[in-house]
Specification:
Elements lengths: L23 E3 L9 E6 L10 H9 L2 E6 L6 H12 L8 E6 L1 H10 L7 E5 L13 H8 L3 H9 L29 E6 L7 H8 L5 E6 L12 H17 L17
Parallel strand pairs: 2-3, 2-4, 4-5, 5-6, 6-7
Antiparallel strand pairs: 1-3
Length: 263
């Protein structure tokens, strides 16, 4: 039974001050000041092992990365774990929630009720009806990712829950119900070929919202943070974070020059 919220392979071990509830952690390179904290909320079936590549890459850019595994059977406990990380002494601002699938819905809900959240990244938002239930393991891999390396990680992870992608979500965490946290900068990342949640559903939900930036990953599947374009997705998130450090209105860091070809 899903508990509703009371309010709105090897990995690095977290430091003692943020250890409670953190399944994996990556810190900035030695000698470099941390530029912010990312709390990653996993999606259905996933363990922290799925975010090793993402964690290493973002930490290399001096962002502290902490992974909290989303427990759909105890969302209140998951919320408490996120709050503990956000309020830990070794979690420098800006503090950003990064959620995938069910974790994206939870990140959006928490951003609306926690003053500690400075921004949100929502990747591969999901529907509540579980209509995209995979037929078998090959079908689930096809829906999740084209990336052979990520497919291998999922296949070899003993803690990965196969078939969980078809698990019904609580409505509060689905794309149908997830709103926008007022005043919280939000980056929505979605694969253009996501067979689990139609991109049009996500675009319709957030189109025209001033605090929301939406990017479509060409050919991207549901596990868009870990799909074949993971480098470009990570770079897009880093640029969002760098703009956030300049202000909640996201001042530009780089801009195209009129008449030039877009990079």
């Amino acid at each position: 039974m899903v508990t509703s919220l009371t309010s709105a392979p090897s990995v690095h071990h977290p430091s003692a001050s943020a250890a409670a509830g953190v399944a994996a952690a990556w810190d900035e390179p030695a000698g470099i000041a941390a530029r912010g904290t990312l709390v990653v909320l996993t999606g259905r079936g996933e363990s922290a092992a799925a975010y090793q590549r993402f964690g290493r890459r973002l930490s290399a850019d001096a962002y502290r990365v902490r992974v909290v595994e989303t427990d759909l059977d105890d969302l209140d406990r998951t919320r408490d774990q996120v709050v503990a990380v956000l309020r830990a002494e070794d979690s420098p601002a800006p503090r950003v929630l990064v959620g995938a699938d069910a974790g994206a819905g939870l990140a959006a809900v928490l951003a609306g009720g926690l003053d500690d959240v400075d921004a949100v990244v929502l990747a591969g938002l999901a529907l509540a009806d579980g209509s995209a239930t995979p037929r078998d393991w090959d079908d689930e891999l096809e829906a999740r990712t084209f990336c052979p390396a990520h497919r291998r990680v999922l296949t070899e992870d003993p803690r990965f829950e196969r078939g969980d992608l078809g698990r019904e979500l609580p409505l509060a965490l689905s794309v149908e119900a997830v709103g926008v946290a007022p005043g919280v900068p939000t980056l929505v990342v979605h694969g253009s070929a996501d067979p689990v949640t139609e991109p049009e559903r996500v675009e319709e939900l957030y189109a025209g919202v001033a605090t929301v930036s939406i990017v479509a990953v060409e050919g991207g599947r549901h596990d868009v943070l870990n799909d074949v374009s993971h480098r470009s997705v990570a770079a897009t998130i880093v640029l969002f974070l760098e703009r956030l450090r300049l202000g909640a209105d996201l001042p530009p860091v780089v801009r195209p020059v009129a008449g030039s070809v877009a990079p």
